[in-house]
Amino acid sequence: MERPAAPAAPHSPAETRLTITSPEQMRELGRRLAKLLRAGDLVMLSGELGAGKTTLTRGLGEGLGVRGAVTSPTFVIARVHPSLGDGPPLVHVDAYRLGGGLDEMEDLDLDVSLSDSVIVVEWGEGKVEELTEDRLQVVIHRAVGDTTDEVRHVTLTGLGGRWSEAGLETLSA
Fold first, then answer.
1. Percentage of the chain surpassing pLDDT 90?
2. pTM value?
């Protein structure tokens, strides 16, 4: 009698930790990370106000070669930046003011297919995880309080099979 195959082990998260010391380094991290991204990727950004989420996304936009200045979408909730070449568009969402999950994302009526875009969501925890099991979580820590310290500690955690072999470790090289 054959033994049933053991269930596949879930992919353990791929994780990379970096120390960033300037806004330009944060932008450069975004440009380098863009080389690993493809259509259908979900990138969730979290960190305190002023941590560098939009600066990182600006670098992603540069690396992906999209049209338009990447600025914080706080008041418009979401911006679509079409590709200037043959790459995917960048959808930049600020979910800070969104209370619900996918329903509110769908209500944004984005004029792109989410599976054809790179989606970057600031403040998305507990709101957009249902979009896909494969996602990249980026947590940016900075000193809080009255400080001019530019140092940021960035943790990139790739969840799901998509990120198990994506090469996150190359970002720390």
1. 50
2. 0.84
